[in-house]
Amino acid sequence: MSPPWRLFADHLRLAIRLTPNAGRDSLDGIEADGEGGTLLKARVTAVPEKGKANKALILLVAGSLRIPKSSVSLVSGETARKKILRIDGDPEDLARKLEASFPAE
């Protein structure tokens, strides 16, 4: 299974399936998206109104990678469950951190 992230020159893009209004904030591993790709499963306690769940997702991802929240931005999927995040920084270092947390199955 391929990882749900792609490396670029100065950033990494991460595909996520977000479940808002959950019981806890967590990143729950990698799953197939049904289209031949993969997604990182995430859930947040925030409700999906006025961008609250998206902000909670950015905080969750930034915290888990130990990077500033200003390095994480939403590229697509503002109102959808499937989202693409842009994470600025050294893409190789970011990929290593993600691989350590979510090893290939």
Structure description:
- By secondary structure, the protein is of the alpha+beta class.
- It has a single domain (5-101), classed as 2-Layer Sandwich (Conserved Hypothetical Protein Mth637, Chain: A), CATH 3.30.1200.
- It has helices spanning 52-65, 91-101; strands at 5-7, 11-19, 26-32, 38-43, 72-76, 82-88.
- Strands 1, 2, 3, 4, 5 and 6 form a six-stranded mixed sheet that branches.
- The chain is globular and about 35 Å long.
- The model has no long low-confidence stretch (mean pLDDT 95).
Succession of helices and strands: EEEEHEEH
How confident overall, as mean pLDDT?
95
Overall strand count: 6
Q: How many domain regions?
A: 1
Report the CATH topology name.
Conserved Hypothetical Protein Mth637, Chain: A
Helix content: 10-25%
What fraction of residues sit in β-strands? Answer: 35-45%
Summarize the structure.
With 105 residues, the chain is an alpha+beta fold.
List the helices and strands and how they pair.
Layout: E1 5-7, E2 11-19, E3 26-32, E4 38-43, H1 52-65, E5 72-76, E6 82-88, H2 91-101
Parallel strand pairs: 2-4
Antiparallel strand pairs: 1-2, 2-6, 3-4, 5-6
Features:
6-stranded mixed β-sheet, 105 residues, globular, 6 strands, alpha+beta, Conserved Hypothetical Protein Mth637, Chain: A
